[in-house]
Here is the input.
Amino acid sequence: MFIDYDTFRQRAEALQQRIAAACQRAGRNPVGISLLPVTKTHPAAAADYAARYGLPAVGENRVQEAIDKRAQTTAAVRWELIGHLQSNKAKLAAAHFDRIQSVDSEKLILALNRAATEIGKKLPVLLQINAGQDPAKFGAEPDGAPRLLELALAQPALQVDGLMTIAPLSADPAVAHRTFANLRIIRDRLARQFDRPLRELSMGMSSDLEVAIAEGSTQVRIGSALYGPR
Ligand SMILES: *Cc1c(COP(=O)(O)O)cnc(C)c1O
Here is the structure.
């Protein structure tokens, strides 16, 4: 059975307290950090809860699942793709998502620009960087980031908001610290080199959001701490 709204609200409040406490320790303003509820594997009600609570967007990691879910709800939220995207699904993804966080190849950049151009849309994207050098994770290698960004910035139908990463699975919090710090350093370097703000740093999930906030996250993507185990 899926959780009820009251449970969601309590968890969302508890999360906002975690975020506020992490901000206090890091000397940051919580206004600079958004909470992206990750609704994957959960029913469309998960998006309804997010909207009712006042959260502006939800994250999904599969294109078809999100399309199906979106058809089942009138929730006034934006839909963001946070899972791996193959370029043969770029057209569907460009049409059905309000932002794509998992852009990690030249082929995908070109396919998304073509698809967004066809439907007359300016598509916000994040570049996913494998900042933890994790062989098990998708994401562009840090060394390839400048080339990828240069190409993405040259696409008229794409708008590059920033970077995204997922920390390698590890019991040692130092691994996540290193990964998130690395993404911030990469962002700062790219922002200088290309004279763009690249403001969004999408990093941190249920288990490592404090670490991510300490390292400069502007968006934490939260599934299990809101909706329970998958
Ligand atoms: C599932 C998922 C999340 C949320 O993970 P939780 O640990 O449940 O908070 C965040 N980001 C991505 C890319 C995911 O696939």
In short: The pocket of pyridoxal-5'-phosphate is lined by residues 38, 40, 61, 82-83, 166, 205-207, 221-225 (CB under 6 Å). The first strand starts at residue 34 and ends at 37.
